[in-house]
């Protein structure tokens, strides 16, 4: 049986999502490796983890704070890991390159996963030889939302999926098995329609982002509306995901993406991480 108690796990990419995944997986006393080629990103990640992990451990049943170790050397980060999670931006060539390297560097018995929110793992196997151990593990805004979707690549050993479902449950996450390959998994397929139509309404001048969020919150009983949530995800990430949907489906309108490009991306308004998007932000960190 794979030793996930004493061996470290690895998150590759310490941006907005990678540091959150590291935090939520560091509550059981295990060792967490966090890799990024940028030392600036790893420094920011440690600040984030130090701020939010202690409280999260207190909230987690039987929580025990793990040791989080950062790396800027990929080969060293991969040593003896039982799990490697790729969590870099939704750029296909970059993901293909990193996943190929990880497949070569991690131990033969380790599990390889991608946190991609729009690419099914079957589209990311080009450089992965050991496809029997390769899956999607798609997290939703941890540590606030502890949902993770698990989906195979078409060649995944079913035992790998069963094992990860078990382990995620032990980490006090809520795993959902995506039983058939789906671009957007389960929730994101539904969320994408809401997000896209919200952008369309704003692009047509029917309403403003603020007003759309207000009516959405009132009638849908959501904590935040679509535009605030897009700011949290990152508008560049939203744009990349929408482009991927458009490549896969012929019915995706171009106007929402054009609205994002013309009014926000071209002005480096990327949401929370840049301090400005649909809203203004003083704090560039979101729990």
Automatic annotation (TrEMBL):
Q: Which terms does the UniProt entry file under GO BP?
A: fatty acid metabolic process
Domain 3-hydroxyacyl-CoA dehydrogenase NAD binding intervals: 11-180
Q: Give the matching InterPro entries.
A: 3-OHacyl-CoA_DH, 3-OHacyl-CoA_DH_NAD-bd, 3HC_DH_C, 6-PGluconate_DH-like_C_sf, 6PGD_dom2, NAD(P)-bd_dom_sf
Keywords of this protein's UniProt record, alphabetized?
Answer: Oxidoreductase
| Annotated Pfam families | 3HCDH, 3HCDH_N
Query: 3-hydroxyacyl-CoA dehydrogenase C-terminal domain: which residues?
Result: 184-281
SUPFAM superfamilies, from UniProt? Answer: 6-phosphogluconate dehydrogenase C-terminal domain-like, NAD(P)-binding Rossmann-fold domains
Q: Which residues carry the site feature described as Important for catalytic activity?
A: 138
Q: Name one GO molecular function term.
A: NAD+ binding
Q: Which PANTHER family match?
A: 3-HYDROXYACYL-COA DEHYDROGENASE, 3-HYDROXYACYL-COA DEHYDROGENASE FAMILY PROTEIN
The entry's protein name is 3-hydroxybutyryl-CoA dehydrogenase
Species, as recorded: Commensalibacter intestini
Lineage here is: Bacteria, Pseudomonadati, Pseudomonadota, Alphaproteobacteria, Acetobacterales
């Amino acid at each position: 049986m794979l030793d996930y108690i004493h061996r470290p796990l690895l998150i590759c990419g310490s941006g907005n999502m990678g540091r959150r995944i590291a935090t939520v997986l560091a509550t059981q006393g295990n060792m967490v490796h966090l890799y990024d080629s940028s030392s600036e990103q790893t420094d920011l990640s440690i600040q984030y983890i130090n701020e939010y992990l202690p409280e999260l451990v207190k909230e987690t049943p039987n929580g025990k704070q793990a040791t989080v170790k950062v790396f800027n050397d990929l080969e060293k980060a991969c040593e003896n890991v039982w799990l490697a999670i790729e969590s870099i931006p939704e750029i296909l060539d970059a993901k293909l390159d990193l996943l190929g390297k990880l497949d070569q560097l991690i131990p033969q018995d380790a599990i390889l996963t991608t946190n991609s929110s729009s690419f099914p793992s079957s589209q990311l196997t080009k450089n992965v030889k050991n496809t029997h151990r390769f899956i999607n593990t798609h997290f939703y805004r941890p540590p606030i939302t502890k949902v993770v979707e698990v989906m195979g690549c078409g060649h995944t050993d079913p035992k790998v999926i069963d094992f990860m479902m078990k382990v995620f449950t032990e980490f006090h996450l809520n795993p959902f098995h995506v039983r058939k390959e789906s671009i957007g998994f389960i929730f994101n397929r539904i969320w994408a329609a809401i997000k896209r139509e919200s952008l369309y309404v704003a692009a047509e001048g029917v309403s403003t982002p603020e007003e759309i969020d207000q009516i959405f919150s009132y009638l849908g009983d959501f904590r935040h509306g679509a535009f605030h949530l897009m700011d949290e995800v990152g508008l560049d990430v939203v744009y990349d995901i929408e482009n991927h949907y458009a490549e896969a489906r012929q019915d995706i309108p171009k106007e929402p993406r054009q609205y994002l490009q013309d009014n926000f991306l071209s002005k480096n308004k990327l949401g929370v991480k840049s301090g400005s998007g649909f809203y203004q932000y003083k704090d560039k960190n979101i729990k």
